[in-house]
Amino acid sequence: MKLALAELKIGQKATILDVNTEEIPLKLLEMGCLPGNTAELIQIAPLGDPLYFNINDSHVAIRIETAQQIEVTL
Amino acid sequence: MAEEHIKVALIGNPNTGKTSVFNQLTGLKQQVGNYPGITVEKKMGTCRLDDHTKATIIDLPGTYSLNASSIDENVVIELMLNRKDENFPDVVVVVTEVENLKRNLLLFTQIKDLEIPTLLVINMSDRMKLKGIELDIPYLENQLKTKIALTSSRKNIGIDEIKKLILDYRSLPTDPCLNASSIDPEYFDKLRKAFPNQLVYKLWLVITQDVNFLNLDRNEMKSSFTKSHSELRRLQQKETIKRYQFINDTLKVGQTIDRSKASDIRAKLDRVLTHKIFGYLIFFVVLFGIFQSIFDWSSVPMDFIDEKFAQLSVYAASHLPAGELTNLIAEGLIPGIGGILIFIPQIAFLFLFISVLEESGYMSRVVFLMDKIMRRFGLSGKSVVPLISGTACAIPAIMGARNIENWKERLITILVTPFITCSARLPVYAILISLIIPEKHVLGFISLQGLTLMVLYLLGFGMAILCAYILHKMLEIKSKSYFVVEMPSYKIPMLKNVGINVVEKTKSFVFGAGKIIMALSIILWFMGSHGPGDDFKNAEKIIEQKVYQSSVPINPSVIPNWTAEYKLEHSYIGIAGKFIEPVIRPLGYDWKIGVAIVSSFAAREVFVGTLATIYKVGDKSDEEATIKEQMRHEIHADGSPVFNFASGTSLLLFYAFAMQCISTLAIVKKETNSWKWPVIQLVFMSGVAYITALLAFQFLK
């Protein structure tokens, strides 16, 4: 099932299918946010944004609008 | 035998312990400076390798890759591409961390493509057991074409190994790990043919970023090899994927991780520290604790310094041969130096707390917690760090705003940070509060003075937030919100790192601000003890005459004081103060305070020192008195105290809001690259300060 990274629930793991390179920072790619790698949602900030992921063993927080540009599958 | 010098560059991702490695290698033999023209901190140090070899080590800013997205990262690329730079390294040491090896190796493979001797440090090896990680070092060395030092900088393990490998750098292989040009062979072939003498990877870096490279004309080069932005982006993605493929393949064999062993301290701590209630609660307790302890702990050494310098001044005046020079020393230099040294306790404590928060990994969690709230005001979660470190000094804070990716959020952060109560305001606050707020406790334990200070901090913060909101609504800047925060694993801060950081920051602050304060003290002393015209020259006679003509009998012991007072009034400084008096009178200030305000436009901490100098010049009694006592005894012509509740409050508000720091304006100019923003800041902040101070005085008097 295809969905955006932003739609994961806490604890859910997914595989990255595609990233919109125009809309997401290069730094995120360099941290391993690339097709084929896994991503897990660890925590949602108390006010609903940003989201805290484990992407390819990198622990990073990104905003929802960025996480929407990343397509994943469960 | 001649001494050999090896130039070493330390490169690595943020949070890999690169700086601890640097500290372990160099100890206190470091110099912190700036790169010419930009305000990126340049850290250099030396390290003895053996009897006749020394290494000069440069600690480059942390970066995730050779694709620069900030000026800090740009420094790394500029140096790595320029073989003619005097700091161009003989050998590069890439520092990685065992838990994030996969990601850290990305930068390593890029450096390898530059064909410079490179060795790999895998740091934090003491955590391997805990995390169930095992490494096949010979295999990794073979695949990555390098030598590896397994270290733990916090336990001082493996540092000698690094030194040994540096010493032997000539035997390090310089060939790349992988062929990056295979992402678009046709394009890279064309590049290679056009510039046969250059490394293709270097050319590629020049095309994709804004770096200057040798004498190649970038524009010419770009135009002949132009590709659209999105095409370049796609290629960069391809390159990154390719590198990760290589790294994954290498680590599949070279690294085994037993996931069952991984203990979950991070997850547990995260759950509490980013909890929707406890998270904020803990954050506010931490903040409150910091401010409380700064005020409590530093008051003792500060009073001590204040008192000692008052004594020293009297001692110098009475023990040195009388004359101009002695006056300069006793009335200008000593109070001036005292005015600088009195800052050390507070600044040191603030930097101590900030570096502990950063080192432990807690700061990233605060950024995560605060982002959504801050965004409402046009700021970023990352603005929290500058806003907190702004309580120490706005200058490093504004520089710290650099890692905010979004330009609008960064600009707003830069513009509002000076409202935050910096440590230079603290001595002014401290002395005024102790003059106008009684030393009482409410509910038995909350000190009224401490509470007032807290209110002033909140006032500064509130003003910063309010202005941020206004700017957010006014500024029409469209920029993409790129927000990426690494959440490092929690670490117990290392004493040595924190210590060096505190010492370095305090030193650079004291010497930086110190120079201004020192120079101003001397100028002020001169202007205060010299004057034009006969009024100044004949002060003794004039006062004597007045006493003589007076209808009521006057105790002759007041004559020296009256004379001094009269002299001061007619000195250069008195004339200057009188000149601006009409402007500041409605705020409740006399001309002496006016002088202090004018001189604190260079740096606000000068205020206390200036008053100290002025009152010292105007006080001819031999009693040693602290600045506070002198201020308390200062009276208007009608006998009412100068520092009462209304004028004190007005002064507090003025100092809370006014833009009185030339260094901050200079930094804002550098960081925003225009005079527009610092000028707006100066006019706006000073305007707010004047109006609020005016209202407060007129309302309270």
UniProtKB/TrEMBL annotation, chain A:
<dbReference type="Pfam" id="PF04023">
    <property type="entry name" value="FeoA"/>
</dbReference>
<dbReference type="GO" id="GO:0046914">
    <property type="term" value="F:transition metal ion binding"/>
</dbReference>
<keyword id="KW-0408">Iron</keyword>
<dbReference type="InterPro" id="IPR038157">
    <property type="entry name" value="FeoA_core_dom"/>
</dbReference>
<dbReference type="InterPro" id="IPR008988">
    <property type="entry name" value="Transcriptional_repressor_C"/>
</dbReference>
<protein>
    <submittedName>
        <fullName>Ferrous iron transport protein A</fullName>
    </submittedName>
</protein>
<feature type="domain" description="Ferrous iron transporter FeoA-like">
    <location>
        <begin position="3"/>
        <end position="74"/>
    </location>
</feature>
<dbReference type="InterPro" id="IPR052713">
    <property type="entry name" value="FeoA"/>
</dbReference>
<dbReference type="InterPro" id="IPR007167">
    <property type="entry name" value="Fe-transptr_FeoA-like"/>
</dbReference>
UniProtKB/TrEMBL annotation, chain B:
<dbReference type="InterPro" id="IPR011642">
    <property type="entry name" value="Gate_dom"/>
</dbReference>
<keyword id="KW-0547">Nucleotide-binding</keyword>
<dbReference type="InterPro" id="IPR003373">
    <property type="entry name" value="Fe2_transport_prot-B"/>
</dbReference>
<dbReference type="GO" id="GO:0046872">
    <property type="term" value="F:metal ion binding"/>
</dbReference>
<dbReference type="InterPro" id="IPR027417">
    <property type="entry name" value="P-loop_NTPase"/>
</dbReference>
<keyword id="KW-0460">Magnesium</keyword>
<keyword id="KW-0410">Iron transport</keyword>
<keyword id="KW-1133">Transmembrane helix</keyword>
<feature type="binding site">
    <location>
        <position position="26"/>
    </location>
    <ligand>
        <name>Mg(2+)</name>
    </ligand>
</feature>
<feature type="binding site">
    <location>
        <begin position="12"/>
        <end position="19"/>
    </location>
    <ligand>
        <name>GTP</name>
    </ligand>
</feature>
<feature type="transmembrane region" description="Helical">
    <location>
        <begin position="377"/>
        <end position="399"/>
    </location>
</feature>
<feature type="transmembrane region" description="Helical">
    <location>
        <begin position="411"/>
        <end position="438"/>
    </location>
</feature>
<feature type="transmembrane region" description="Helical">
    <location>
        <begin position="509"/>
        <end position="527"/>
    </location>
</feature>
<dbReference type="InterPro" id="IPR011640">
    <property type="entry name" value="Fe2_transport_prot_B_C"/>
</dbReference>
<feature type="transmembrane region" description="Helical">
    <location>
        <begin position="277"/>
        <end position="295"/>
    </location>
</feature>
<comment type="similarity">
    <text>Belongs to the TRAFAC class TrmE-Era-EngA-EngB-Septin-like GTPase superfamily. FeoB GTPase (TC 9.A.8) family.</text>
</comment>
<feature type="binding site">
    <location>
        <position position="27"/>
    </location>
    <ligand>
        <name>Mg(2+)</name>
    </ligand>
</feature>
<keyword id="KW-0406">Ion transport</keyword>
<dbReference type="InterPro" id="IPR006073">
    <property type="entry name" value="GTP-bd"/>
</dbReference>
<feature type="transmembrane region" description="Helical">
    <location>
        <begin position="450"/>
        <end position="471"/>
    </location>
</feature>
<dbReference type="Pfam" id="PF07664">
    <property type="entry name" value="FeoB_C"/>
</dbReference>
<keyword id="KW-0812">Transmembrane</keyword>
